[in-house]
Design a protein that fits this description.
The protein contains four helices and no strands. With about 170 residues, the chain is mainly α. The chain has a domain of about 100 residues. Helix 2 runs antiparallel to helix 3, helix 2 runs parallel beside helix 4 and helix 3 packs antiparallel against helix 4. The longest helix has about 35 residues.
Length: about 170
């Protein structure tokens, strides 16, 4: 009985396997030569078209540079005020009015730094759009570098003032 079931199972599996091989002649690809197989070079691809417009308008770039310069001049003025207050507060107790005034000035300095960071963020967004459009803009990269250097200088000034206040 077991041998009969084994032979029946083998026969059923063989029939199922052979049924998968059966099909019509229209399902197979043609063996004729395709156009690219004859050895001739394909036609030259069209040259990529120039960008329709620059990724960043020069006016927008000038506006962002001016915003960063304005924010930096505000930062410089507030940094002078904060430096004077930090010198007065150095060595004073934590509860003193001089120390509170110095900390408030440092907070105002952070706000001024934030305006410079906002200009850099706008430049970064424009750079991301330009990269997405595959149209690099050297003027945009230069502006990004300038504003990033300004922001780094402002960060160093804030860190120096906090260090002076802590001593």
């Amino acid at each position: 009985m077991r041998a009969h079931l084994t032979k029946s199972a083998i026969l059923a599996l063989s029939c199922a396997g052979l049924a998968g091989c059966a099909g019509t002649a229209g399902d197979y690809p043609s063996l004729a030569m395709r156009p690219f197989e004859d050895g001739t070079a394909p036609a030259a691809a069209a040259a990529p078209s120039a960008p329709i417009r620059p990724a960043v308008s020069p006016a927008r770039l000038a506006d962002l540079r001016a915003a960063a310069a304005s924010a930096d001049s505000t930062f410089a003025a507030r940094a002078r005020e904060a430096e004077a207050l930090v010198r007065l507060a150095a060595g004073r107790p934590f509860e003193s009015g001089e120390r509170a005034a110095a900390m408030a000035a440092l907070a105002d300095l952070d706000v001024a730094r934030g305006r410079t960071a906002g200009a850099l963020a706008a430049l970064d967004a424009l750079a991301a759009e330009a990269a997405g459009a595959l149209s690099p803009d050297p003027a945009l990269a230069a502006a990004q570098g300038e504003v990033a250097a300004t922001l780094a200088r402002e960060d160093a000034a804030i860190a120096q003032l906090w260090g002076a206040l802590a001593s």
